[in-house]
Structures are given as C-alpha cells and as structure tokens.
Amino acid sequence: MHLLDYFLRSLIDWVFRRRSVGVTLIRIGVPLYALVLISLTIGITIPTENGPFIFSWDTSGGSAALSWGVFLAATAIVALGFLLVFRDIQREGREKVIVIEARGLRDWQGEPLEKAVPLSVKGRREQVMIDVRQGLVDGKIVSPQVALRRLSSLPDDIARRQDGLDRADISFVLGGLAPVPLLFLLGVIVDDESRTLIMDWDRKSHLWRPLEEADDGKCFDVCGLEAIATGAARIALCVSASYDVLEADVRLVEPAAPIIQMDLRDRSTASHWSEHKQQRLAEQFLDVVMALARRGVTDIALFLAAPASLALRLGTVYDKRNLPRLTVNQYEQGDARKFPWAVRMPVAGVPEAELEQR
C-alpha cells in the first residue's frame, strides 16, 4: 500500500506539474507538419482477386506557397521550443534543492525525505541527514549535547553547499521527527530568507507529505498578553498547537515568570496539514513576540507543543537580530522535572546554540 500511495502521489505530481513553454511550442509545431503532408500526392495499390484496388489522394493543385509557409512556420515554432527546453535544462542544472531531514526516532525505517520531494520542486537534490538517534535510550534523548553538536555544524555545511551559487538558485526542503527544540533550531538556522518547502511525516499513511490540505480558518487564542507589565524582563510563552502545555508543568522550571498562553482552537495531532494555516499561525506567533519586545521583554522561555512541521516553521520566522533572546524547552512526560533540558537559540546576540540542563 505504501508503494501504491507513493506511485499515485508521483503520478499526480507529474500530471499537474508546471508545464514547460518549450514543450508546449513543440507540441503545437509538430502537428503543423501534417498540414504540409496533405499537399502531397499519395497513391496506394492493393492487389485483389478481382484486380488491383487503387487508392489515391492528390492535393497537388493546392497552393505551394501556402504549404511552404506552413512548413517554415512549423519549423520556427519547433526550433524555438527546443531552444526554450534547452534553456530550462540549463537553468535546472544550476538550481539546487538542499533537503534537510532530522532523524530522532529510534529504529526509524521510513523512506528518506529526499525521495518524497514533489517533482514541482526543480533542481538537483542534495540530502543532508541529521541523525540524533545516538543519544536515545528507550525513546528518550539522554544526551542532548550530542544532538546539539550534530546541528552546530549545519550552518557551515549549508554555506559550503551554497558556495558559488546565486541565492535565487537555492531552495530548501525541511522535515524531521526529532525533539521540538532541535526542530525549532533547525528552522532558525535555515530561516525564511530562501525558498523553503516544509513537509511532515504522516503517521497514518507512513509517508512524507507536503502541507496541501485546505485552511480551516482556526487560529490561536491568546491569553495573558495584556497583563504583561511594561519592563518585564522574562516571560514564559506557552504554545499549545497539538497537546496541552500545562501551567503546573511550566511552573516547575519557571516559578516566577508571567505566563502567556497561545491555544489553537479545536487542535489535534492532525490539524496542521495546511500551508496557509501554518503561515497564519506563524504570523500570529511572530506578532505576539513582537508585542512582547515592544513591552521591553528581553528573554522568552518557549514551551511549545506542536507538530514537527509547525515547530520548524516557527523557527524559520524568528528574527535573529531584532527579537528577544529565546529558550525552547523539551518536554519529557516521564521526568519529574517535566522539562529537563532546553536549548537557547542563536538569536539576539547569542553566537551559537547553547544547552541548558536542569
């Protein structure tokens, strides 16, 4: 079934792919040659018992000038089509798609993200695999420092892959199943200054999918923002986009910080499959952070419960220079501290990501 799903998805991508102007011109020009052929004299003789059967078609009485005109027009259209196809091939040869996948699940056997990238994304694929499973014990990351080191080399790797290429020829595809702080950090590293396609793993169908469902119009309900006094230095921002972020758990690590809640209406673990919806949610998140910055907040402790794709997206939109310092916390249900570690993001003057263990 998985192979059938992948085949059908690839077929749909091919059928609805962006059409090449060059190929279209060739398809128009080639049939025009048929108009030239009908100006020829065609004769067929078939022997039978009752004598030869003769079929003939003679249009030689037509205008020769018209036939030559059609022939030259068809040749010009087809030649232009081939030139445009050649140009497109050269352009696609320059374009590069950097596919970054974060693997953080034990015994992962799913297909690589690179193989699921839609055909509509043009360019040579280069896969970058970030494997943080070495720090896993019974499904729990016990060595987040190891995972963080693997991500720390990513900016240099991206710079090397971009070297010598025009920024317009580079695009990214992001996806992964890993702890929320690492996914958010991956988004911060890539940011939104380049063309970026974010995909997510469908746990029911067991395949990577783009965010292609309709926007249901649901947004975050924000609570507590107006109560933040001007000059408050640190706040706890709780974003519940899938599971609930409980205030009691947050108070274990942030006993004094004011709390702001952003709760997604009618949320579930499958309410994120719309690109437009995620763009709206990311804009709303950014608006709240900017409002905090205007109130003088300098440090934000983020407690985020969200699907992987949304965690990535929120990281891409976080401004590295103009927004407050940010720490993203990791939730572990079986840990008495609930949030045993966090990652301070490389934003607001922090030179590189830092691990905070409790």
Explain what this protein looks like in three dimensions.
- The chain is an alpha/beta fold.
- The protein folds into 2 domains: 11-92, no CATH class; 95-357, no CATH class.
- The protein is 36% helix and 25% strand.
- The chain has helices at residues 2-15, 21-37, 64-94, 113-116, 144-152, 154-162, 180-190, 247-250, 275-294, 308-317; strands spanning 41-46, 53-58, 96-103, 124-131, 136-137, 140-141, 170-177, 195-202, 207-210, 220-223, 234-240, 259-264, 299-305, 325-330, 341-344, 354-357.
- The strands form 4 sheets. A 7-stranded mixed sheet has the order 10-12-11-13-14-15-16, covered by helices on one side. It has a 5-stranded mixed sheet with strand order 4-3-7-8-9.
- Helix 7 crosses helix 10 and helix 9 crosses helix 10.
- The mean pLDDT is 84.
The biggest sheet amounts to: 7 strands, mixed
Number of strands: 16
Low-confidence stretches: none
Order of helices and strands: HHEEHEHEEEHHEHEEEEHEHEHEEE
Task: Walk across the major sheet and give the strand order.
Answer: 10-12-11-13-14-15-16
Helical coverage, percent range: 25-40%
Report how far apart the termini are.
Answer: 45 Å
In DSSP terms, counting alpha (H) and pi (I) runs of 4 or more, how many helices?
Answer: 10
Shape: elongated
Assembly category: single chain
The overall pLDDT average reads 84
Instruction: Return the domain count.
Output: 2
Strand content: 25-35%
Structural class: alpha/beta
Rg calculated over all Cα atoms: 29 Å
